[in-house]
Amino acid sequence: MMTSVGVTGCGTNQKEMMTPHEARDTLISTIEDSAALLGVSGWNRDHAAGVQSCGADGTSAKYSYGYGAPQPEPERDRHADATRIADYWTSLGMTVRTVINPEGDPAVFATGGPVAGLRFATAAPGDYYIAGSSLCVPGNVDELWKEQTQD
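^ that's the sequence the OP posted. Answer follows.
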């Protein structure tokens, strides 16, 4: 069984300086830049970044986003790719750990840095998947949701 990590929270300084749109864009670019490091084709997003309420008083917002690719052809060294992702996320100031599931598939988890948290999975049948959450920043979730559904 693969270990799962829930990620919440945010750095106070970044939180106070970033708008919800900047938090969303930072999450998306961090995930897509990570994917680009691997040189794998066929990446696609699950859906638009989803907004949700966060923070103790519910007056803040964060986004979630997922990006996946089918099994790379020819088959790649998933452990080397996991290391490449872990090294990149470490360079962004994130706290990173790699977990190997019982089948031998690596997964990378990270918190901190420019986003609240990220994960990179390489589980069978070999698909690659990167997902994460943005920082929790001040914002009106109802207004952001309306804006998102009008796009």
